[in-house]
Give the backbone structure.
Amino acid sequence: MKFKEQPRERFFSKRTLGKIILFGLLLFGSATVQTSFFPAVSIFPASPDLLLSAVIGLALFDGERTGAVCGTAAGLLAVALGGAGTAPLPVFYMLTGYFLGIFARVNFKKNLLSWLIYISLGAVARAMLSLLVIVVTEQGMNLFTAFTRIILPELLMTVAFSLPNYFLARLVVMPFQKKDEV
Amino acid sequence: MNGFRKFITGRFFLVTLSVALLISIVPAVLFAMGQGDYVKSTLQLIATPFQWAFTKVGEGVNGYVVYFRTMKDLREENAELRRELEENKGKIYDAELVREENEFIRSYLGIKAEHSEFSFEDASVIGRESTNYRTVFTLSKGSLHGICKDMPVITSDGLVGCVTEVGPTWCRAVSLIETASSIGAYDERSGALGVVEGNYILRYDGLCRMVYIDSDADMRAGDRILSSGIGSVYPRGLAIGEVVSVEPDENTRTFTAVIRPYADTEDISRVMIITEYKLYSE
């Protein structure tokens, strides 16, 4: 397996500015919907982690650098808009975006199947983090209860509602890919 | 693996990780210091209108969900209430049966206290004669329960009739208003003697008559008629009925009284058969 670094981009360029705006909008939209729409609908057993799917989508289609930066930004949004709790989400999102971005570039095609693999891996990792946080902060909680009430619903909801972000990430990355081709 | 090591030791990775760590730690530190987090506040300020809008959309969606869920809950509650209603109907019916039985046992105890020399066997009416006025009943006890022919049948109201036919687990009783019936009787107030017998015409009104009353007997409407114990079937002192009217019999120079039996043969469902008693003649 041979790794090759993603080429660096100039920070002060139209292209980078365009990415910041479009990717930022996707992340901001995901954070807003995640923290407002889903908690208001009582049939959903948990809120899906839309930020995670957005980060994975962007990492998949635009590489590990974008994945890491967007992951950090997603963590900031999660902390700011109240969805983070005590979990170190900025670090988690950053690492997820970075490493999945690398593997996506090296090993997998950018299709729906690889997306499903990534989102499943990401959701499982997120579930592990949630479990860790619960074990550390809520010591009295029964682990079975934590699994059935929090971890599993969150994991399933994240996977189930990740598909829109797959298409949205693909859409926002598309203009920059075309430029690459040119 | 050298390439991969470069990824995790590269400047980009380390800088981004440091920033992510700072974002994770700084808000908590600022919060602990009682300081406001301006970045967080600004982002929250920007997000607030969007969050408000999405919350409204969510609440709208939730409204529909709650509506349908409430309908479902109401349907389930309705079904549950119907089931409970049916159960309670059954309980009321059971309670009614228990009440009737309780009433029957009370009256039974009353008769037991009044006639301590009697032995009783209680029985249910399980069949009736299929004519306009029902004067023959099939009862739920028979020879296996010690029932014999000619045993008197009573209710707490008064005398019903006597057993005329006996099977192993059933017997048949004939009401005192049946034409074949004949009971030695007396007027409780005046002591006037006579015979209570069924009458073909009177029985359609649920009545019978008392014949062979002395012409000088002081018998009046409303008098209580009891069994006299004379004869081979009925013991003394069983309430038969009350006098409705008294008329002279032109042929025999005696009086004949119309009697309304206390026991209403139309309504009875449980009776007592007197299995042991002493006859007046004994």
Observations:
- Chain A touches chain B at residues 1-5, 8, 28-29, 31-33, 35-43, 64-65, 68-69, 71-72, 75-77, 79-82, 88-91, 93-95, 98, 102 (CB under 8 Å).
